[in-house]
Amino acid sequence: MTAGPLLLVSDHVGGSVHVLTVPDGIETGRLNGRHLSEHAGFLALPGGRVACVDDRRGELLVLDPFGHELVEAAIPVAVPAEHLAADPSGRWVAVTTGLGENAEPWSDLLTVVDLATGDAARVRTRVGEPGVTVLGNGDPLVVLRHREPGALAVHRFADLLGAPPGCPTATAHAHLPLPDDGHGDAHVPDLCQVLAATGEGVHRARRKGEALVAEPVIPWGSPARGWYLRLDTRRPALWSTLRGGPADPLRWPEWTNQAWCHDLDTDRTTRTELGPGLVFRLALAKDHTAFTRIHPDGDELILLDADGRTARRVPLPAMDGAPRRGGTPWDGVQRRAVAASPDSDWVAVTRGGHGEVHVIDARTGTEAACLKLGTPLHHGGHAILRTPSDRAEGDPVGR
């Protein structure tokens, strides 16, 4: 198998997973009948492996795109999967459940898995859309980020894994208050620190024994807020996208967007204007950070350099079925996924509804290839780019 970058692209609506070489797009593996949870996303594991959840079959999949067999393990878990995380070693995994195709949260099931043995257990926690991190530094702790009322709830992983059959209720042994509007999670393994994005800023808590101790909040420094939080494995930093403007989703073309980067060593924050429209998830390439911006006047890939300055803006071809003025940017419309590896200069951007992936060289902003998958990639699909040694697993939260 190739040791160069490999791109995994999931069509979670159509039910397929494609493994492609980058930039030439040779398909080295494919799974059919697999409907991965786009919300839980892909979780980077050591050795270039990837974890994800099949929402239809109710399985946690461990994929090894660089190995002889693509599917390394398939372990039953509760679905619909909301969030997915592992401890820093990549052995202990937790999967929370959320809304799925429902208007209100209804499931309170949490699944924990030991990938070394294949053992798994399901317990009941609290109905909602909980975020999750799995802290190391001794016996692992599962930290659930709850909303309304907001809290960080701490569970011992061993207690959850040893729960009896029948999905018993699991009571957290420690809590830390949190605002009710938490959305976005990160974990800094070197500090054994969990972070949660709220309207106030980024709340920090550090592990102390089998509990958490609150630390100062990192302010957004803007009237806008971040709904997504990501650890930069290239250096100790946090990234988010600050969204401002009108609250009405029908006015989404007027939303403002800033790239937000907080250096954890210097405690310095950098904000960069990205432009109006829909900007959400981001991807970390070798020397650039990549964002996609969707807007009725034209879509683009935005590349920031290591100092947070706008290096390039790359126009992207329009999508049939893209979000329109007067409608929301997420109901029955096409979107884009963006993927990169901290060990590569390639950036991949999907074109929802067209079954295309644009491969861009971040150094020049030029398109090296347009890969056609033969599947529509409705809703933009989801993607991850890996090399065997990119150390992307240093961010142990599913993206």
TrEMBL record:
InterPro entries linked: Haem_d1_sf, WD40/YVTN_repeat-like_dom_sf
Superkingdom field: Bacteria
Gene3D superfamilies noted in UniProt: YVTN repeat-like/Quinoprotein amine dehydrogenase
SUPFAM superfamilies given in the database record: C-terminal (heme d1) domain of cytochrome cd1-nitrite reductase
Name assigned to this protein: Uncharacterized protein
